[in-house]
Amino acid sequence: MATAQAHTETKWWSGGKSPFNVEYGKLMMWYFLMSDAFTFGAFLISYGTIRFSQNYWPDPNEVFNAFPLAGHANLPLAFVSLMTFILIVSSVTMVLAVHAGHNMDKKGVIKWMIWTVIGGIAFLACQAWEWTHLITGDHAVMINGQIENIGTTVTMNPWGPAANVAAHDGHHVGTPGPVAFGGYFFGITGFHGFHVASGVGINIVMLIMAINGTFERKGHYWMIEKAGLYWHFVDLVWVFVFLCFYLI
Amino acid sequence: MEHAVQEITFHHEPGGKEVVSKIIRTTVILSVITIIELGMGLGMYALPMAEGLKLFLKGVIVILSLAKAFYIVGVFMHLGEEVKNLIMTIVVPLLLFVWFIAAFLYEGNSWKNLRNTYNPKQAVSAPAAPHAAGEQH
Fold first, then answer.
1. Is the full-model pTM beyond 0.90?
2. Which 120-159 residues of chain A touch chain B by CB within 8 A?
């Protein structure tokens, strides 16, 4: 296939120029993200393996049905939808910041980076609320013939099949579900949240550098582009976390 | 060989309104796909349906998520604008996931069947410390 083609229009590298026509740091960011994709993929596939090995797995619509300030209203997936949209929107503001950078528009970069940072912090705040709600939200569960109130942690899972009894006050009583549920949920959303947190940190540094005019002096906004790649990757991973934990 | 020495790197043509409108269009596509996915997820919960139909809907949701991934990587991360060989060095290794997913899910399912056959008492409870390959960073 790599026969002697004309010099013009050929996509094959012929020496004398950067083969991928891309800056070193950006290329390395791509390879880092690819390896990170394998890390996340390994986590999610491991979760899938365990889930496939169980006869019973909790229905996400029942586990994730709470919304801040909504009390005990049954709102399946509402809160996680909000989190998803926050992350998508912050990804959009990031790409707008990158676009402003291409145009050497310092004010635009600063404006959109501020919105991106706000989006990231809002997402983390949502996740903090969700974790707190899961860990502290007690559910009546039949354990060894006794009804106990347990939350969802890495060692406890109240989301098993329903027990054949009702509590004195008529509340639903369950049985313990697969322990792996909490471990995988907190492990993977935690690892993703860690990525969001470091992304917010990187974005804040980029914002400060943009405000200080560092990129203007350099003559380009490539750093914003690289931070943007990382931030979009965080959004990309959330697409799959959302898919694996909440939708299916 | 052209003029060597200096590294020639990629320059996005600045682009104006059409870039922004492409971003907005992609945002709308991502949002609509997400809403459809949510509708299907809620439908599986709210409406009584056969297991086969549920499995089909889950398959559709997976495909829609892959479409979202395609838009995020292709448009937001501008991978579509890079040199083709660069795209290939990113995308081709990811094909390992095809084997990775198929093999491990098959393994999990087989584990369930074996346990149900030979140790039905433990079938409901989960293993204490699940280990899977490839968790190291």
1. no
2. 157
